[in-house]
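quick one, two chains, predict together pls
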Amino acid sequence: MAVRTDSDVVVASRRLHEPSDPHEPSDPREPSDPHEARHPHLEQRTPPAIAVAAVLVALLLGALLNGPGLVRAATGLPVGPVRDAAMVVADGTARTGATLGLDRPQQWLTAARDSDVGAALGTAATLAGAEAPADGQPDGGEGTTVLGDGEESAGQPADPVVAGSDRDRVRGPITADAPLEVLLAGDSLIGAIADGYGRRTTDNELIDWTKDVRISTGLARPDVLDWHLHLQQLLDARDPDVVVLLLGGNDDQSLVAAPDGVLHYGQPGWEEEYEARATRLQEIAAGADREVVWLELPAMRPAKLEQARQRMNAAARRAAAETGVLLVDTDALIAPQGYTARLEGVQVRADDGVHLPHPGGDVVAEVLDRILSERYGLPTG
Amino acid sequence: MLFPTVRFALFLAIVLPIAWALAPRPGRPAVEAWRWKLFLVLASYVFYGAWDWRFVPLLMISTVGNEIAAMGIHLARDRAQRDRWLIGALIGNLGLLAWWKYAGFLTGSADGLLRLLGIDVNLPYPELVLPVGISFFTFQAISYVVDVHRRMIRPTHLLDVAVYLAFFPQLVAGPIVRANEFLPQLAVGPDPRGVPVGRALRLIAIGLVLKVVVANHLATEIVDPLFATPGQYGGGQTLLGIYAYAVQIYADFAGYTSIAIGVALLLGFEFPRNFDRPYAARSLQDFWRRWHMTLSRWLRDYLYIPLGGNAHGQRRTERNLLITMLLGGLWHGAAWTFVVWGGIHGVGLVIERRRRASIAAAEAAGAPGPTGGRHDREPRTDGAAHLVPPAGAVRPLHPVAAWAVTFHLVCLAWVFFRAPSFEVALTVLAGLGGGNSQVPLSPTVPLLVAAVLLTQQVPDGTRKGLQQAWDALPVPIHVASFALVLVILDVFGPDGVAPFIYFQF
């Protein structure tokens, strides 16, 4: 049925080859020789077989030059046979590249990037709180910032605070010279909340805030990002007074580096191990008597994720009962009757049914601001 | 799957040799071309399904529906029947787009309006995940049926249409390739003389660097923080952040289409250019001849001209321009901020048009020159002589001023394009009047912004000369340099890969 000519478009049936409609205009854009029209100027051409080989060699050479990058990419895959195979290939490629000395360009470039000059050029902007962290802690002499004990109302119809905290790290008055240092850290879900908190407190000299958002990370995969180690490094660098955490959205998967190896999601022991990780993270955050706010995962539209988040929230609650951190039920704020994309005309969830857009982040940030302001006697944004 | 990933590299490494092994070539029976086309379709569906397999049937339905419409148009017995088929196809395509992309927006807007009127009804909100690339393949489908209706092309085999709509290099974010550009290439097969490997790898490498290094760096260093918490940035850094977004979106989008064009070249297809140094433009009209060129010409040929174009007087022309730009804005995103972005461009184009008319009228009217003659002439910098306009008449801007005005108008519009809400947009703009910022900023930000803007000023002839000289180098040099670029991406790129800005348009 299909008829090919050098210059005409393929037509769909023999019937259409009958004498053409005299009213049909010729199309001046149809070239007599499509290949000539495509490449009107002299251009170096490579025979197809050599071209394909060139591309494959380029990709292979790129792989050999980039062994560590391949290993990182393979490491981040979901646990399973595909990842296992990818790790074998990536490791082999990295070793071959190193043996041939092909990893040197990457080492040179990495050294250049991490050198003093590179660090100076590539300094990441401090995202908020332009002033450096205060040296030491506020004087704990006269007066103590009043902290509420136990349950505190967030001012919303449903009290989002599930569990209270009795930490009292801030000893002296909070001033512009010794502001309250707040760190918001977690996976992508905390991003909009952190930004919303930042917008509310930007003009508040009594609060310095920073965020650390690590997309696609969680407690399940310390091989991708070890949150225990990472959080400790953040605390050592910033020494915040308050740590706000939201993690778990990416943890509906196998737990790597479990005591007995890999614990697959749903396997017996998975929840206990996850609870142990959450407990450990909360303990690290609460070190030096810091106030810790653990934001629970909000309801999600995808059924599989919704089921997983309930398990993770339950594990986090059990951990909080042990560590005494302040737990906030985000459902009370943005999903009081279960998951919803819009609440009172405000879009509180993104189209993926998981993340929070700016307005959703603002809702949670407002409550967070109120909780901390009430606890430390600060004006709200 | 995203272009700058190991996954896509593996995909390409598999697809490329098989595609060429099956491709039509001299000496091979023409009827065997179907195997090649079928493979391209299946590979494209695998590519698309990697995003979300549930949307592959949507693409198939669009393909079949548009082919039926095209055949109906072609076989129609009279003009009225042709028109009915076309209208049906347009309703189908635009209905698909409206449902998946705009249902939530329209519902939310209606809900908001009712609340303003004091009516609290809580309209049911359709929560739909936007199919990736739907705006692009829908526009391509529309161009196919309209071109058949205009008798510019004949309908082709369903398999060809399937390849055309699903072809993975351009499926997700363009360029918007016309049927009469793609189908003839599909009909004759890849150029047996070979592949311009140098050009292809150059385009892919440049695209990767623009996307992975430039765009991502600017986004994380300043643009995302600026639009997240604008209040913390002073006037200077706010301005720099806006410039940075202009560069970021260019690097992101031009980078993507550069990769798409390069990958298509490797497969034996020539795609149209999509960007031509847009920040060298000296007018908005010029800008739209350089930015997302395939969308510009689509809007011109399938919206502006059918509305009447500039054929019915000034008022209608201006109306048509505004409608085209407003709808163009809405195409980019289901939010009123995108409409405002389009509106700024539309109003700007109208004002420019009136200025050009005034200048032309003033020049035609002439004025006494230095020697007193009515039509004394004064040479222009380009050598063309023109009449001296009367005193007080509108004069064309100096080229540098014209560039500066155009660039800043475009940047103003970008603020609305980027901001998640009007409140944030206005806060960012208000921040221009702010004081000194206290936020430490990497010096790479102004360096990258300046570098990209300056390279846009390089004359086209010089650029083409350099490109052709590079492309003519031996293939092993292209192989080695491409491999080195991959290392640069890994060292200087971010952890993880951010999606392209345009991928969900």
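Confidence is low (pLDDT under 50) at residues 1-34, 123-157 of chain A.
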